[in-house]
Amino acid sequence: MGVRGLLGYCLDHKSCECVxxxxxxxxxxxxxxxxxxxxxxxxxxxxxxxxxxxLTTVNNNPLLRLMGGEYAAFDAYLxxxxxxxxxxxxxxxxxxxxxxxxxxxxxxxxxxxxxxxYSQNLQKMRDNLDVIAGYKQISDLSEDSxxxxxxxxxxxxxxxxxxxxxxxxxxxxxxxYVLARNLMIRPQAFAIFSNDSDFCIFRDCRFIPCQLxxxxxxxxLGGMQQLPEKPQQLTVGIxxxxxxxxxxxxxxxxxxxxxxxxxxxxFTGPFSRQLKMSLGLQERAHVTEVADWIQHHKCVENHxxxxxxxxxxxxxxxxxRQSREFYSAGSATMEETSGDTxxxxxxAIESAIEKGDLPTSMMGIxxxxxxxxxxxxxxxxxxxxxxxxxxxxxxLIFRIIVPWRSNVVEEYGxxxxxxxxxxxxxxxxxxxxxxxDRIQREKIFPNLRTFACIMSYHEPDFPHxxxxxxxxxxxxxxxxxxxxxxxxxxxxxxxxxxxxxxxxAMVVGRVDESWYQALALTPSVRSIxxxxxxxxxxxxxxxxxxxxxxxxxxxxxxKHVFSGAVWTAFHVASSQQGQQYLHVHFPRELCHIRxxxxxxxxxxxxxxxxxxxxxxxxxx
Length: 620
Fold this sequence. Notes:
Elements: H1 6-12, E1 19-23, H2 24-31, E2 34-39, H3 40-58, H4 71-87, E3 90-96, H5 104-133, H6 152-162, E4 166-169, H7 176-185, E5 189-194, E6 206-209, E7 235-240, H8 241-247, H9 254-263, H10 272-278, H11 287-297, H12 304-312, H13 314-328, H14 344-355, H15 361-366, E8 369-371, H16 386-389, H17 391-401, E9 408-414, E10 420-426, H18 444-455, H19 466-488, H20 497-508, H21 513-517, H22 525-548, H23 564-573, H24 576-585, H25 587-603, H26 608-611
Parallel strand pairs: 2-3, 2-5, 3-4, 5-6, 8-9
Antiparallel strand pairs: 1-7, 6-7, 9-10
Helix pairs in contact: 3-4, 4-6, 9-11, 9-13, 12-13, 17-22, 19-20, 19-22, 20-23, 20-25, 24-25
InterPro entries: Asteroid, PIN-like_dom_sf
Family: Belongs to the asteroid family.
Protein name: Asteroid domain-containing protein
C-alpha cells in the first residue's frame, strides 16, 4: 500500500532531479547483465493492460477483455517480452507476496484494507456485467475496471517457467521487505519494478514505478503490433530514496521513515488520524506538510503529545518501532514467518512454495484462511456463485493441507445475497486422503488415482476411468468436463446439452483463435457465467489439487484449454436464437463457426456419450 500521496507527488515532479532517466539496455551492456527485481502483481497488471490494449486494437474488438481470457495470445505476448529483455541482458526476477492469511501479523494490519479492495472489485464485476447486459457501453469502463481472467496467474506462472524466469515466492507476508533486501544483496540487482511507494522510503533503494518503465515506448507495448518489439534502447525513470528526500527538502533518507510513520504506512495506518491530530496536522495532510513538520521536529518522539501517546498506547509504539525496522532493510530480522514451522506438514508446504511447486495460497489455507476469487458471473440475487458451489471439492482438497488438529478453514467471499461474508468450511475427514508431507513426487500412479478419486467424489461408481482410457492429458480434460456437467445438470446453472457440447468443442478442439478474436460478438451474461465456472473448476483441479499431488505438469495449461473469443462464438451458435442472430448479422461467419464445431464434435463422437452418460441422451 505504501504512503498515500507520496508516489503521486514524485511523479508530478518527475521533470525535476527527483527522477534519473537511464537507458537500461546500455547499462546491461556495460555490466554484462542486470536484474530487475519485479513485484509480480504490479508487473501482471502492467502487462495485462497493454496486452488488452493491443489485442482489442489489432482486432478492432473492444469486447475481447469481457469474454473470459485469451491465454494463448497472452502467453505469446509475455514470452516475447521476457525473452527479448533477457536477450538484451535484462533479467526479470519475479517476487510474489505470501497469501492472505499466511501471516498473522500482516493479517492483523491489512485485513480491513483487503476487505475494502474486495468490495471495490465486486463493484468492478457489476460494472462489467452491466456492459455485457447492455446497460452501459464498453467505453464507460476504464482500463483499471477490468476483472482479471480466472486463470491469468496460472498461465502467467506457466509462461514464466517456460521462459526460465526466476520466481521467488514468499511463504508469508508481503514481498516488499524481501525485494528491498535482495536489492542490497544480489550482485546483479539494478532496481525494483513496482507501483508501491514503500520503495521511495527504503534506504538506498532504486525504484522504477510502472509509470516510468519504457517511457519512450521502445517495446511497442499497447500499440498496433501484435507482439512486443526487441528494444535497441529502453529508457526508464528511477526514483532513488535520497532524491525523494531532497525533493521534500528533508535532511536525509532516515527522515523519510518518519514521514511514513506520520503520513501512515502499513504499520501506523490505523493510528494515522489520531497521530496527525496530536501533532497539529490535518487528517488528510499533504506529504509536503508532513515533510515541513519533520524539518522542524526531526522525529515523532520529539513532540510531547506524540511521546505521551506512545507511552499510553503500546500498539502505536510498536507500530513505530516496526516501521523503522522494516524500512531499514539492513538485516533479515523483519522477514515474516508464517508461524509455527515445526510440524512436518508446515515444513513441507513452505519448502514446496519456495521451490515453486505450490502456489502461495496453499500456506494461507494451511493457516486456516481462504480468500475467494472474484470472477465474472451472474450476480443477481439468489443466483449461485461458483466458489460456493465448489465448497465440497475444496473441503476434500483442504484435507491434504489443513492440520488434523484444526480442521477448519475460514473463507471470505461473496454470498448468494451478493455481499461478502465469512464462512467456515471443515476439511472432510477422509482417512484415504493423506496430508501433503506424505505425498511423494515419484509415486505418480497413486497420485493420479487420488486425483481421479477426488474429482469424481460426487459419483464414485461412475464406470468410465477417463485417464485409463484416454491418457493423462485428455483424461484430465474429460474428467473436468464430466465434473462440470454433474455440478450443473439439474442444479446450479442447469446446463443444457447444446451448451455442454459447445463447451466440449471449445475445450478439446483446435481452431484459429485469431479469427474468432476479430469477431465483434457481444458475450451474454450466461456465456460469461459458464466460462467462469468452467475455469474455476480447472483452477481447483490444476492449480490446487494437481500441484499438491505433483501431477499438474501432466495436464494441459490454460492456453491449450480456453479462449474467450472461441467460447463466445460457440455458445452463440449453440442455440437456435443465437444462430438466427448470426444468420442475420454474420452469415458467412456462421458457416465457419458451425463448421468448426461440427468437425470437432464429429471427431470426438466416441467420447461424448461417455461424458453425458446418465444425464443426456446423445445421438449424432
